[in-house]
Amino acid sequence: MATSIESNAFAMNEDLETANFPLVTTIGTAAFAYCSSLENIEIPLVTSIDTQAFRFCYNLETVSLGTVFTPPQQLLSLPVL
Q1: Span 8-28, mean pLDDT?
Q2: 24: how many CB neighbours lie within 10 A of its CB?
Q3: What is the pTM of this model?
Q4: pLDDT at 3 over 60
Q5: Confidence (pLDDT) at 74
Q6: Strand partners, 4
Q7: What is the CATH number of the domain that holds 1?
Q8: Are the CB atoms for 42 and 20 separated by under 8 Å?
Q9: What are phi and psi of 73, to 5 degrees?
Q10: CA distances from 69 to 3, 37, 44 (A)
């Protein structure tokens, strides 16, 4: 089973609402960009998320990353909406 989601893998998928990737450790650039219906994603073993992975995922409500992921500094400074 793959442990990475390649760049643009699910980009512009308007049907994707929920995603669970229990073994994924790496998410590529813009992997879920423009997934307008994506609401929930669970990636408990992720250790690396490239830039713009969730760009324009306006309906994203829940992102579960587990305890292994350390967010980059720019994510820590984002305002809470």
Answers
A1: 96
A2: 21
A3: 0.82
A4: yes
A5: 55
A6: 26
A7: 3.80.10.10
A8: yes
A9: -55, -40
A10: 15, 24, 8
